[in-house]
Write a structure and sequence with these properties.
The complex is a heterodimer of chains A (about 110) and B (about 120).
Chain A lengths: L2 E3 L4 E5 L4 E3 L2 E3 L4 E8 L5 E7 L5 E3 L5 E5 L4 E6 L8 E9 L2 E7 L3 E6 L1
Parallel strand pairs in A: 2-12
Antiparallel strand pairs in A: 1-4, 3-9, 5-6, 5-10, 7-8, 8-9, 10-11, 10-12
Chain B lengths: L4 E3 L2 E4 L5 E6 L6 E7 L6 E7 L2 E4 L8 E4 L6 E5 L8 E8 L10 E2 L3 E5 L1
Parallel strand pairs in B: 2-11
Antiparallel strand pairs in B: 1-3, 3-8, 4-5, 4-9, 5-6, 7-8, 9-10, 9-11
Classes of the chains: A mainly beta (about 110), B mainly beta (about 120).
C-alpha cells in the first residue's frame, strides 16, 4: 500500500532561518508528489507539485522541493522563514495508474518564532 | 472566483443519528473528492466522482457511508447510524482536469463533525 511519512509533527524555526520539512514515500512506481499548506480554518492550498521532468520544483511563497528517487524523498524547503509561513504542511502522493487518489502524510505544523 | 464551499461548517449530532454533509465544487470542475481528516492525521481518501458517477469509492469505511452527486455538481456525503468514531473533519475537493496526471485538487474549508 502507498504510504507517506512526514518526519516531525512539529517543527519550530526562527524568522529568517531555513525551513526544512521532510517527506518520504513508499512506491514501487514513479509517483506524483504534492505539498499542500493548511492555514487555520482554511482549506488545503497547493504549494507545489512534481509529476515529471525537472526534479527541483518551485512553488508559491518561495518554497521549493526536490524529488530524489534514490532516497524516495520530496523534502520541502524555504531559505528564509517568515512569520506568515506558520501553518500545517501536508505531503501527498498519487500513483501513475490511479492518479486521482491522493495519499497524505500526517502533516507537520510549522511554528515561526520572532 | 468562488472556491469550494462546504456546509455546514460544524455539525454536532448524537450517536445513531443520520447526517448529511454538502459540498459545492468550483463551477465547471467535473471531478469531486471527499476526504476524512481525523485529529492529528492527514486527509484520508473516501470517494471520487467523475461527473455524476462514483469512479472510485474504495475509501468509504463501511456501508453506513454513502455519497451522491446527482447532477454532476453539488455532492452530499451521507452517514447513517453515526458512531463516535465518525467524528472528524470531512473535506471536499474538486479538480478541473481529472484526466491529467498531477491535476491540482482544490479543497474546501471542511465540515467538522462531532458525534456525541
Amino acid at each position: 500500500a502507498q504510504s507517506v511519512t512526514q518526519l516531525g509533527s512539529h517543527v519550530s524555526v526562527s524568522e529568517g532561518a531555513l525551513v526544512l520539512l521532510r517527506c518520504n514515500y513508499s512506491s514501487s512506481v514513479p509517483p506524483y508528489l504534492f505539498w499542500y499548506v493548511q492555514y487555520p480554518n482554511q482549506g488545503l492550498q497547493l504549494l507545489l507539485k512534481y509529476t515529471t521532468g525537472a526534479t527541483l520544483v518551485k512553488g508559491i511563497n518561495g518554497f521549493e522541493a526536490e524529488f530524489k528517487k534514490s532516497e524516495t524523498s520530496f523534502h520541502l524547503t524555504k531559505p528564509s522563514a517568515h512569520m506568515s509561513d506558520a501553518a500545517e504542511y501536508f505531503c501527498a502522493v498519487s500513483r501513475s495508474y490511479n492518479f486521482n487518489k491522493f495519499y497524505f502524510g500526517s502533516g507537520t505544523k510549522l511554528n515561526v518564532k520572532p | 472566483g468562488a472556491g469550494v464551499s462546504q456546509t455546514p461548517s460544524n455539525k454536532v449530532t448524537e450517536k445513531g443519528k443520520y447526517v448529511e454533509l454538502r459540498c459545492d465544487p468550483i463551477s465547471g470542475h467535473t471531478a469531486l473528492y471527499w476526504y476524512r481528516q481525523s485529529l492529528g492525521q492527514g486527509p484520508e481518501f473516501l470517494i471520487y466522482f467523475q461527473g455524476t458517477g462514483a469512479a472510485d469509492d474504495s475509501g468509504l469505511p463501511n456501508d453506513r457511508f454513502f455519497a451522491v452527486r446527482p447532477e454532476g455538481s453539488v455532492s452530499t456525503l451521507k452517514i447513517q447510524r453515526t458512531e463516535r468514531g465518525d467524528s472528524a473533519m470531512y473535506l471536499c475537493a474538486s479538480s478541473l482536469t481529472p484526466g491529467l496526471a498531477g491535476a491540482e485538487q482544490f479543497f474546501g474549508p471542511g465540515t467538522r463533525l462531532t458525534v456525541l
